[in-house]
Amino acid sequence: MAQLLFCxxxxxxxxxxxxxxxxxxxxxYPGFSPIVLDHLHVGNAGKxxxxxxxxxxxxxxxxxxxxxxxxxxxxxxxxxxxxDKLRRSETKTVTTGHQLQLCGGPAFLHYKIITAIRLARTLxxxxxxxxxxxxxLASEDHDFKEISWVNGDNEKFVWAHQLENSKLPVxxxxxxxxxxxxxxxxxxxxxxxxxxxxxxxxxxxxANGEKYVHLFRRxxxxxYGDTELLVIDASHSKLKCAAxxxxxxxxxxxxxxxxVIKTTESLFEKGFKVGTHVRDxxxxxxKEDGERVGIVQSSxxxxxxxxxxxxxxxxxLDWCKRNAxxxxxGVLLRPLYQELLLNNSxxxxxxxxxxxxxxLEGAFFLRGVAMPDLHLRxxxxxxxxxxxxxxxxxxxxxxxGWWSEEEWTRVWxxxxxxxxISNLEDKLTEFKNASVAVASLADPTLERxxxxxxxxxxxxxxxxxxxxxxxxxxxxxxxLHALSSxxxxxxxxxxxxxxxxxxxxLSREVGGFYALRNLLLEVQFPSDKVVGxxxxxxxxxxxxxxxx
Length: 548
Prior knowledge:
This protein is of the alpha/beta class. A hairpin with a 2-residue loop joins strand 1 (3-12) and strand 2. The longest helix is centred in the C-terminal third of the chain and has 29 residues, at 447-475. It is globular.
């Protein structure tokens, strides 16, 4: 039975919303790998201890703060004093990050941010020291197809771009073609005022000639600017220059690949299936045309596409410092780059991310960098009363797992088959058993024929059942359509709700974006219970009858 954790009321005009937040074990969430479930059980045991980490230099701290300030001020954004806290030497950070999903993309992006903000607040209260939540923009990722879509109520909206097949980092994409897509999304079930605000930021960015990374920062500021959240775009050349030594190891035979492979093999021996592909050089080179190309070692040395890299008599460290702006860490090197810059106590990760961070334990030790605590993001399920009513008709609850539409329909049909079906099946079983017995008594060689006759009866019966099910489906088409719609709100095409439904769409059920955001931000647990063990289920939405 789910335990009631939180209840809050939100007033919006004449509407009165009652929101209830329940908890369930996060292991109920479908698709958790064994390594994630193990992490939920043992936590961060075995990670590199913090004592191995070199103290964060005041130079690096100041550099990070200056870059963040510069990035905000370039867009005319006020930090409202948030930077003062980060500049303090004792301040810790809690970091999460993701690709720049169109209009926030699936809801899990927001759950990562909300988890980071709430965890930072909780740790600050418990420790008495300053903790700042950070969002790390994956601006250099070049997989445009992954970020170029967002779902509405019943439609998928896709941003088409003339550079979509290029290797240009998505953050550098122009905003061409985006206005119509965002407009259509805004008309597809999003709260009108929220949609207007999102569109307004796009118009400002476009008028200023900004790139997609700038627009995404604007959106994050719109959604979380009133919290403590700070956003960093680590593609800045000054930050990369500070990581020149880390990058140079990838060229000198002392990169992280060997360590990652050893850790991966160790995880395999423990029964954990994690990714196997490891690049020899965990760096990309951004060419003059902006495209991001992987660096590989060849007979000519190190090459990126048709570009041959050569230090020209200088060592690789000096070369990396001189070419820092063109270097970009790969997926396995990026966490170490992040930890060099930020003073993280925790990082908030999705289930997939947690798997590849686990592969980096040896790499962190190799580089003398402390690995932060790995914290699984919130897992949230938003259910309206209508969905709950439909779920009750099939006896579904979250503790029973995540059913597909087919499972919902099958269970409902089983519950609503004619009452005499089970009795009929009992009689058929008696008939088949009696037929075998009688045939055997007459002549033992007839037993096989009796079994064949029974099989024919089973086939005839199954065909009849199919016809009965079709007839019931036909007579109850509206109800089954409602069941289908309800099931799609929870689980669709093998994915749970938070991996395909947009946060703004979901938040309509609870009074809008900020109502749901604040509800999840205000949940209070001890820090070891904030994420990882609990799934949040938001339900029971009601309105005053005068508004219906």
